[in-house]
Amino acid sequence: MRAALISVGSELTLGLTVDTNSAWLAARLAEMGYEARRHVTVGDDWEEVAEEIRRAAATADLVVVTGGLGPTLDDTTREALAEAMGVPLQSDPEALEQIRAFFRSRDRTFSESNARQALVPEGATPLRNAWGTAPGILAEMAGTEVYCLPGVPYEMREMFSHAVWPRLQRVGTPGVVATLTVPCFGAGESRIAEQIADLMQAGREVTVGTTAAEGMIDVRLCSWASSEEAARAVLGREAEEVRRRLGTLVIGAEGTTLEAEAGRLLGEQNLTVSTAESCTGGLLAKRLTDVPGSSAYFLRGVVTYSNRAKVDLLGVAAELIERHGAVSAEVAQAMAVGCHERSGTDLAVSTTGVAGPSGGTETKPVGLVYVALASREGCEFRELKLGGHLARESIRERTCSTALNMLRLRLLG
Amino acid sequence: MRAALISVGSELTLGLTVDTNSAWLAARLAEMGYEARRHVTVGDDWEEVAEEIRRAAATADLVVVTGGLGPTLDDTTREALAEAMGVPLQSDPEALEQIRAFFRSRDRTFSESNARQALVPEGATPLRNAWGTAPGILAEMAGTEVYCLPGVPYEMREMFSHAVWPRLQRVGTPGVVATLTVPCFGAGESRIAEQIADLMQAGREVTVGTTAAEGMIDVRLCSWASSEEAARAVLGREAEEVRRRLGTLVIGAEGTTLEAEAGRLLGEQNLTVSTAESCTGGLLAKRLTDVPGSSAYFLRGVVTYSNRAKVDLLGVAAELIERHGAVSAEVAQAMAVGCHERSGTDLAVSTTGVAGPSGGTETKPVGLVYVALASREGCEFRELKLGGHLARESIRERTCSTALNMLRLRLLG
After folding, report:
1. Nearest Cα to B356, choosing from B280, B283, B286, B285?
2. Nearest CA in chain A to B191
3. N or C: which end of chain B has fewer CB within 10 A?
4. Per-residue confidence of chain B (413 residues) as pLDDT tens digits?
5. Taking CA atoms, what residue in A is nearest to B284?
6. Residues 346-365 of A with CB under 8 A from B
7. Do residues A287 and A362 touch, judged by C-beta distance below 8 A?
8. Is the CB of B23 inside 8 Å of chain A's CB atoms?
9. Would you call A303 and B275 a contact, using CB atoms and an 8 Å cutoff?
């Protein structure tokens, strides 16, 4: 079954924004046996959008249009769809009421431009959007279903999952392209690839590839089969082999993160954790608390950006900072130990380093970072040399990943 | 001048990889006066690639194809281009020698599949690639130049900059498409659009549009002119008018953020800030310290995720938490005041709320958030109803944006 994707927005054609919606939709559609054979991006020009909708509807079994449903005049998908269908637009009373209700529930004032969002081509159906103001639209053109969804990624994803996916499931599809990702951390991409080199050869039943981003290595497995169960079985066997070879380099199940895995282990072992951050400036606590339910094991954190704060909040000796510098193994350990003592948690993690872009010296260059982990059994630390070629953001992300991985490995025993 | 972009690769149509090449190319081409009106992504199918090349060449003044130039059989751009041109492929001796030299220089073994990469349609010109094995191709189809570049982003960018850009510069283009973005925060997209509705009408010298993401509204200005200077002058005047109408809803210059602007004002006024976070779990401190040099004004932060931590680290009265609940205006203010007193900074910002997805009640639903700002002059707070339709991540981001905006507005006086 062929699908066609159309992304609408001049911010996309001008290159101001990268289109992430198409890849997300293509992956979801593949899971249901639809190949998104062509993705097209066009600007806010209703004639061009109409032409692409006509072309897509004529060649594909399913069309998904994202973007161009906002309240302003540069949002042209409604007009384009009506033009492609050759019908007029009309205001849908139910959609209008839903938009008004959305504004009421958030104590916001409904403005007349929002009434534009209730316009729907004659014969088409508005799709309820509980996540934003723009309703979606479902139309049929010569047997092809055309779905129009908002361009804001989270609204689009929610609407797809709630309004499109269940409809497509009901229709039924002939086969599936299934993928499975094994998330890894703790070694470079080439070292991981060497350990599974034979599995990465072309022509096998499962296609295996790797992707690296900020120190995380994803091992991607992809297979085509007649049913979800068949594809899952093949992928499951292959993933088992990958896991066997890579051991603790594998973080956990597909979709997990270092913070989710550390959190899962903390919960399982009924332990608590606290954080003491310098160079990561709150990112470590933020990542731990990205996980819903993290309040069960994450109790507190401090961001001791100034030396004074390290002394006040963690009891680090001013003399120690003076002797070794704030970026040192000694201070990282004193921070973790102080945090462990003062917070009363079972474990405490600390970070200190030079995140850049300035502030580096010959002996302490940008990218030099220390992370430490304290518990009743004592304190361990790691020195990282992340290199000055990395951006501030990357240095901070990788520092936190290393700290979370230390925590994970400690909990694994 | 119209450009068309074609990205080739089944990893893109399957949604395993996000296409970042098109946005990058569109932005570079705009700087030279080319509007990339349509971006198309197709899989590794030579007939479909050929069809897209034919269509693009017939409607645009310039076509750039990326991907599909690798050594393996699923790389089909060479065959597709030859088919679209209606000519045979032939091996180019110079391109072949360059590929062999590339392998020699890296002590890698040349394999016969790499010889495929020296194939070029009759009448087309190979483009040297010093950054990888795949030469690019330049062809002309009925007056339209078609450039084929490798899909690996780094190689593509280098080849574009060294082989395409200089040629386009030599040919000379009739003008430039310049863009300018005015970043705003503090009102919904429709309310902002109403205040500049006349500027957003079609047919004016400057095209004005809006884009919303996580509560941030970008007003995008786009203009076409004979030179960079002329375009900048027109955009500058238009931006001035937008700024005049929107007042303090405008955060600052293009590319700035709430945290950078708050930081700039803190630095200018020689003031310091600290943070006390509950629901945002470190994200507020993280965003403040995303800004290089933030250690000059951000001294410390605490993440008081448990009630006990609010009492210990901020001196919030346990009785106050018991009476009003941790998510209340009273506790938010006590957190900010406690943080201000204990940290010794000029300003202190606090957050407390229900980030979800669980933990909401009828009186305190998911999305109910309080932010407070304390200083010597006293304490102000805001109640936000972000709505349970938002993801945990969005609720946390928007809470921090509101807190940073309170700080910015206070510093503006």
Report:
1. B280
2. A111
3. C
4. 899 999 998 889 988 889 999 999 998 888 778 889 999 999 888 999 999 999 999 999 999 999 998 877 678 899 999 999 999 999 999 899 888 887 787 666 777 778 888 999 999 999 988 777 788 999 999 899 999 999 888 889 888 988 888 888 766 656 777 888 999 999 988 899 999 999 988 778 888 888 888 889 999 898 878 887 888 899 999 999 999 999 999 999 998 999 999 999 999 999 999 999 999 999 999 999 999 999 999 999 999 999 999 999 999 999 999 999 999 999 999 999 999 999 999 999 999 999 999 989 999 999 999 999 999 999 999 999 997 678 899 999 999 999 999 999 999 98
5. A282
6. 356-358
7. no
8. yes
9. yes
Q: Do B22 and A20 touch (CB under 8 A)?
A: no
CB–CB contact A19 B22 (8 Å):
yes
Structure tokens, B178? 């310049």
CB distance A20 to A27 below 8 Å: no
Give the integer Cα–Cα distance in Å for A140 and B335.
Answer: 55
**Which of B292, B295, B297, B363 lies closest to B327, judged by CA?**
B363
Instruction: Report the C-alpha dihedral over residues A79, A80, A84, A85, rounded to 10 degrees.
Output: -30
Which 8-state DSSP code applies to residue B110?
A: -
How big is chain B, counted in residues? 413
Q: What is the pTM of this model?
A: 0.78
d(CA A15, CA A5): 18
Of B23, B38, B390, the CB nearest to A40: B38
Find, in chain B, the residue whose alpha carbon is nearest to that of A117. Answer: B190
Question: Between chains, do A30 and B40 touch, taking CB under 8 Å as contact?
Answer: no
Q: Which of residues 94 through 133 in chain A touch B, CB cutoff 8 A?
A: 105-109, 111, 113-114, 130-133
Q: Any CB–CB contact under 8 A between A70 and chain B?
A: yes
B180 interfacial to chain A (CB closer than 8 Å): no
Radius of gyration of chain B (CA): 28
Sign of the dihedral defined by the CA atoms of residues A6, A7, A8, A12, in that order: negative
Residue B338: which of B292, B295, B304, B291 has the closest Cα?
B304
B17, A211: Cβ pair inside 8 Å? yes
Please name which of B10, B6, B49, B21 lies closest in space to residue B158, comparing C-alpha atoms. Answer: B21
Which residues of chain B lie closer than 8 angstroms to A297, CB-CB?
Answer: none
Q: Which two tokens stand for residue A59?
A: 């060649």
Question: Which residues is B181 bridged to in the sheet?
Answer: B220
- Asked if B43 and A26 touch (Cβ cutoff 8 Å), the reply is no
Residue whose token pair is 């979801």: A28
Q: Is the CB of B83 inside 8 Å of chain A's CB atoms?
A: no
Nearest to B292 among A22, A209, A392 (CB): A392
Q: Which residues between 363 and 402 in chain A have a beta carbon less than 8 angstroms from any beta carbon of chain B?
A: 392-393
* B275 contacts on A by Cβ (under 8 Å): 282, 303
Answer yes or no: is the ipTM higher than 0.85.
Answer: no
